[in-house]
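Suppose a colleague, Dr. K., hands you the sequence of a protein chain of 98 amino acids and asks what its three-dimensional shape might be. Before reaching for any lab equipment, you can write down a predicted structure in token form. Begin with the sequence itself:
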Amino acid sequence: MYPVARFLYMTLPSNEAAGAALLAVIFLLSVVVYKLGFAKKLPFWQNFIIGIFLLVGGFVLTFLAIFLPVVEGLLIAALILVLYKIRLWREKRENAAS
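The predicted structure, expressed as tokens, is then:
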């Protein structure tokens, strides 16, 4: 097991609670990665459908997260996208100032 999954399964009282927590972590990180990297301005119902698909994909990724570094990969993707957005924001600010 990889570190995040191992931590959740060791600290939470039951396997069901650990699985639900792992699903929640994967879903939240998937939403963050989607918003930072791919999201466009969409109507509410389209965002809702995308959220449903992220949740369904989260179920699949939860099963894979026991044997693969899914959470760790999502964390790295989120960090890279945050750094990209910060750099993009700085460049826009510098171009606006000059």
